[in-house]
Amino acid sequence: MERNDALYQAYCAILREELVPATGCTEPIALAYCAAKARHALGRTPDRVRAEVSGNIIKNVKSVTVPNTGGQKGIRAAVAAGIVAGDEGAGLEVLGKVTPEQIKAIERFAAETPMEVLPLESGILLDMIVTVWSGEHEASVRISQSHTHIVSIRVDGDTLFSEDGSVESAEPTVDYALLTVEDICAFADCLDPDDVRDVLDRQIECNTAISAEGLKSGWGADIGNVLLDTYGNDVRVRARARAAAGSDARMSGCEMPVVINSGSGNQGLTVSLPVLEYAREYGKSQEDVYRALAVANLCAIHQKTAIGKLSAYCGAVTAGSGAGAGIAYLLTGDYKTVAHTIVNALAIVSGIVCDGAKPSCAAKIASAVDAGILGFEMYRKGHQFYGGDGILSKGIENTIRNVGELGRDGMRETDRKILQIMTRN
Q1: How many Cβ atoms are within 10 Å of 174's Cβ, its own excluded?
Q2: Are 408 and 304 in contact (CB under 8 A)?
Q3: Domain that holds residue 419
Q4: Does residue 141 sit in the same domain as residue 193?
Q5: How many CB atoms lie under 10 A from the CB of residue 118?
């Protein structure tokens, strides 16, 4: 692969498209963004609100603390925060600059303003409509398929914006079907760091900072410190602890931004922090770090593309195997080792389900990163899982296809059952 190849440019574009900052868990933040857009369209603070949300939005908003809300959780908090204090032009950093006075106003609005929350039965996993009223005036905004993909804006019955009336797809600007593990490694081999330096530097800075905060202040279930206190200071432990600590802080309402991967801050933390920890341990150069992070991020995106942004399949699994792939590339630079690391990791932890955003995500991340590291160490010592073992097929791309089919199609009923259980608790 050469720098001027179309495939090289496409891979750079995918990294730029996917690795963006977000303040807080992406589903409540997307809902806050939708609410901020609705308030902006209305032109005033509403006196009545309705939020219609798909099942997977309910699942990922229910138990997570929304940042800058005084510790509030759930749909009402996210919508109230977006309406009262959201910056409608800031995307997934919509709640990044909330003042103490606004936090109090958010609490009042959530407590005093009539707000109806309804399920949105569209069949689309990521789907939401926020409608706001002030007197006889009404505005609504719909986001669908991806976290900032606005498909319609309506004010007083008039359509101000519509994506041809369709919400069937939110097409990325690049064809993600171009991704293969072999080409990802070839891309990393010839990568000019200047082409992605700003994107990866932001990921390093943001994700390292929130991880340090998680370890320092003991957010959430404090999985990072539990790991370090229990298992010691080995690099394998530190890799797991760093990722888990960032997740614990994020799930518990820390206001620090995270650079996401595949629409998820947890996945962004999981793919990056273990690679950085291994790079420090082995004294790798900054150029080596950029190449390994490119592999880790793109391998995770490749797997998640086949599954979809939201499903009953835990995204930490694909991110953890991506981290393992990044570590494998960092230490060997070898495509076969990267491919076998992913296959081994998927064979170990593909059964983890997503039951929403919450503190236990940190523990799942630790398990997924452990599987990624174990998958690498297995192959380095001459051991591997083979096609025909469970859902594995011969060839890395066939296995990724199988996992995508499992997460996207096979677990739809599981997803519905998880939501039923969660909403009756």
Answers
A1: 18
A2: no
A3: 174-424
A4: no
A5: 10
Three-class DSSP category at 20: coil
User: Residue 382: is it exposed, middle or buried by C-beta count within 10 angstroms (0-12/13-18/19+)?
Assistant: exposed
**Cα–chain center distance at 265:** 4
Note the pLDDT tens digit of each residue in 118-149.
999 898 999 999 999 999 999 999 999 999 99
Over residues 49-56, the mean pLDDT reads: 96
Inter-CA distances, 177 with 305, 337, 362, 401, Å = 8, 22, 30, 11
Structure tokens at 340: 């076998």
Q: What are the φ and ψ backbone dihedral angles of 405, each rounded to 5 degrees?
A: -65, -40
pLDDT above 60: residue 166: no
CATH code: domain of residue 135: 3.30.1330
Beta strand segments in 39-123, E? 48-53, 115-119
**254-292 as b/e: b if 16+ CB within 10 A:** bbbbbbbbbbbbbbbbbbbbbbbbbbeeeebeeebbbbb
85 and 208 share one domain: no
| Whether residue 184 is found in the same domain as residue 140 | no
Both 148 and 207 in one domain: the answer is: no
CA distance 259 to 28: 16
Residue 14 falls within a domain, yes or no?
A: no
Return the number of other C-beta atoms located less than 10 Å from residue 351's C-beta: 11
Number of domains the chain contains: 2
Residue 425: the pLDDT is 63
Task: Answer yes or no: is pLDDT of 308 > 80.
Answer: yes
Three-state secondary structure string covering 236-268 = HHHHHHHHHHHHHHHHCCCCCEEECECCEHHHH
Compute the Cα dihedral for 371, 379, 12, 404 and give only its sign: negative
